[in-house]
């Protein structure tokens, strides 16, 4: 019997268990000089001690040296409260919080992850990390490899791609990661992960492996309800990615950023299956987050559920579908005035195709919609009873529709 695999985000609140500043593991000496690329060891040969010089530099050490100082720890700080375990009742019943309860609470580290400095602009520096690293934070702090800690501002986040952009003062930034081309990766080429597994005590940890696969479709549960609601397109690597590596760098042998480490498969029988968001996707998303604070996606205006959730009897009697229709999504409601409504879609219609691509379930449809450029027109094919129909739908931004 096969064990059921479970996809888990690679961030845990390890920081509440670990304390202390990050140690400098970059190989730098106290005076700031780089570590030499050779070391001298003593061998005992036939009773005679002989000093032997050993070459320790490699493609990996050179790649790490290029980017290590651009990889930081990201601390999710949350406000403690003297309300204890009963604090949720005030929100639940919409009651005013007792005076001074928030003021008495202090910022505490609720979790930690990693991030990568990818840009400076004037006196500001920009860091990309995972959305789940900073989600729910009251404040965010960034810890550099040398122990310097600075406050960070969240510029924008996107739950679907699990990316977030932070802004900090560029004062302490010494290196910036250069984006590589994730489309040109070759399966089997070296891959190096850098981050802060298990908290800041192990900051700037380096693991290495290879690119195990490209374009992997990985189911992700974004709202922790136990049901996947998104399929992330990811790079697969066997470089060790542990809790706290989330948001850290996956780099190639040139030290270029080829991915943002995000998740792993965690079971008792699976090892070496970590996943990173491809750098070409990251570049597009961070540009939108910098400009808008969010990713602006098109809005269709429907509620739906997979056809597979509908019993065969209801498919035949209520929906009156042809027996040949076995996949798609059933519209449970259509928002008045939405693009779907304007195009003539109705409740109980079953969408089977989006712009020529098959629609198999709700996750699949959401990805089709979110992959569409705003202000473009798409063709949606659906069944209304036995009849197959196709309509053209202008995909407008949600704000434009709702403000109309």
UniProtKB/TrEMBL annotation:
Residues 24-43 are annotated as: Disordered. Pfam families: PDZ_2 (PF13180), Trypsin_2 (PF13365). Transmembrane segments: none annotated. The keyword Protease applies. Keywords: Hydrolase, Protease, Serine protease, Signal. GO terms for molecular function: serine-type endopeptidase activity. The keyword Cell inner membrane does not apply. Residues 284-367 form the PDZ domain. GO terms for biological process: proteolysis. Residues 1-28 form the signal peptide. Belongs to the peptidase S1C family. This is Trypsin-like peptidase domain-containing protein. It comes from Atopococcus tabaci.
